[in-house]
Write a structure and sequence with these properties.
This is MerR family transcriptional regulator. Pfam families: MerR_1. Keywords: Coiled coil, DNA-binding. GO terms for molecular function: DNA binding; DNA-binding transcription factor activity. By secondary structure, the protein is mainly α. The protein folds into two domains: 74 residues, Orthogonal Bundle (Multidrug-efflux Transporter Regulator, Chain: A, Domain 2), CATH 1.10.1660; 55 residues. It is built from seven helices and three strands, in the order E-H-H-E-E-H-H-H-H-H. Strands 1-3-2 form a three-stranded antiparallel β-sheet. Helix 1 packs across helix 2 and helix 5 packs across helix 7. It is elongated and about 75 Å long.
Length: 147
């Protein structure tokens, strides 16, 4: 089945503008065109677009995504380069996850802190609470964060 750019955009939850941009930047060079120049997307193209979106979600610049596409188009001689690129991305995403987990831990602690303060009518209750009087999860969170 073939999809127009509008149909492909709906299917991918993107805008036609985004797909045109990807095409202009050389990120989807394999998308076929009709005799009249209309882009025609196939089912297999959507997996590639999902990969582009995944790389973008890691913060990878379009220029680096384009480099990956170029290496892909070159074939097996670039396997190591493409593999290395994904290992670098993996490391970066793992660091981002760790950072976000610390942020989430802080927010969870602060939610407990303010729930406790609101219930008591003062921040002095959670501020002065002994660790052994805190719920286990909160005590563990407090031990992980610098507050």
């Amino acid at each position: 089945m073939l999809y127009t750019i509008s149909e492909a955009a709906v299917k991918m939850r993107l805008t036609p503008y985004t797909l045109r941009y990807y095409d202009r930047e050389g990120l989807i060079p394999f998308v076929e065109r009709s005799a009249g120049g209309v882009r025609m997307f196939k089912e297999k193209d959507f997996g590639w677009i999902r990969l582009i979106e995944c790389m973008k979600a890691t913060g990878m610049p379009i220029k680096e995504i384009k480099q990956f596409v170029d290496w892909y188009m070159e074939g097996n001689s670039t396997l190591q380069l493409r593999r290395d690129m994904f290992y670098e991305r993996k490391e970066l995403v793992e660091e981002q996850i760790e950072s976000l987990q610390k942020t989430l831990d802080t927010i969870k602690y602060k939610c407990w802190f303010y729930d406790t303060a609101v219930a008591a009518g003062t921040t002095s209750v959670p501020k002065n609470m002994k660790p052994e009087d805190m719920p286990d999860e909160i005590r563990q969170l407090k031990g992980k964060i610098d507050l």
